[in-house]
Amino acid sequence: MKCSIIIPNWNGRRFLKTCLGSLAAQSHKPFEIILVDNGSTDATIDFVKKRFPRVKIIALAKNVGFAAAVNAGIKKASGDYVALLNNDTEADKNWLKNMLDAARRQPEAMFFASKMLDYYKRDTIDSCGDAMTWCGRSYKIGEGEKDGPRYQKEKFIFGACAGAALYRKEFFAEVGYFDEDFFAYLEDVDIDFRAQFLGLKCLFASDARVYHIGSATAGRKSRFAFGLMIRNHFFVILKDYPLSLLIANLPKIIYSEFRFFLASIREGFVGKYFQSILGIILQTRTMLKKRGFIQRHRTVSNQELNKNIDNNFNYKPLFQALKNYRG
Questions:
Q1: Residue 194: CB atoms within 10 Å
Q2: SS3 119
Q3: Rounded to whole angstroms, how far apart are CA atoms 238 and 235?
Q4: pLDDT digits over 175-232, tens only?
Q5: What gap in Å lies between CA 201 and CA 304, rounded to an integer?
Q6: At what angle do helices 318-326 and 250-267 cross, to 10 degrees?
Q7: What was the pLDDT predicted at 221?
Q8: CA distance linking residue 304 with residue 15, whole number of Å
């Protein structure tokens, strides 16, 4: 059972000794590693060739984004399984073994989420997979919580965070590749949604641990990342929300967006917010065309889809949001 591990990279040389070193120590073998370099200028390629000569390198001329980079790797992968892994991670020595064991135990699952833990606080969860809400927001399951019994059991979830995930190779034949118009951020939520429309199941593999630094490429509170998040969550809504459920949940979506706008004011990102809105307008036709294809080919009803979407609307009252903004 061969697996191809794909690592997208842009100027991440400082992380690769840890990341690639942890893969060299994996208890499961064989597997191949494909590093897709997005036009790095930090001598990443020379470093990897010297220190990790068995790693296959796809050298792109420029930064084409996360989605396009991993797609390039997936198309070159020779394994029966494809794993995606962020460069700012350290994989537990049994990470790949435990992911593949989960795939053997659960043949009905087509893709798998790792347990991602904080690199510096290793008892704290970064992500146990992706969840989706009808208010237009996705979130990382368990983020910021202490690891405990609740997160130590396998279960089916909405989708996998592509920072540490495993896919059967045929997944991409059925669902398609990551949407390169997203560039980065939420492209995994979009592909999760498309998989749900086809009835493909995602399993959280609770014993497959990866330690994640987080925000290593764009940086924390990055204006660039904020703009992509604003734009791309609208792309998810435009592409993937069934019309009847979009209409039914429109008040929640509007309220959620108002809170996001307040956040842009608080962080000084108002200009980037409206720049992102313009980007949405310019690409609406493209997204609606993709939406048409997705909705025509779906095999799952709204009722079935709704079972895997979080219907909770746990935002604090609006006055609390305004209070937080003033504070």
A1: 23
A2: coil
A3: 5
A4: 999 999 999 999 999 999 999 999 999 999 999 999 999 865 555 568 889 999 999 9
A5: 12
A6: 10
A7: 65
A8: 41
Contact 7, 85 (CB under 8 A): yes
User: DSSP label at 19?
Assistant: H
**Rounded to 5 degrees, what are φ and ψ at 79?**
-80, 160
pLDDT of residue 217: 56
Q: Is the pTM of this model over 0.90?
A: yes
Q: What is the pLDDT of residue 216?
A: 56
Helices (H) and strands (E) in the chain, counts: 12, 12
Mean pLDDT value across residues 232-257: 93
* Structural domains of the chain, with CATH: 3-212 (3.90.550.10), 223-326 (no CATH)
How far from 96 is each of 93, 113, 171, 225, 273, CA to CA, in Å? 8, 12, 18, 29, 39
Q: Could you tell me if 156 and 257 are in contact, meaning their C-beta atoms sit under 8 angstroms apart?
A: no
Instruction: Round to whole Å and give the CA distance between 87 and 230.
Output: 24
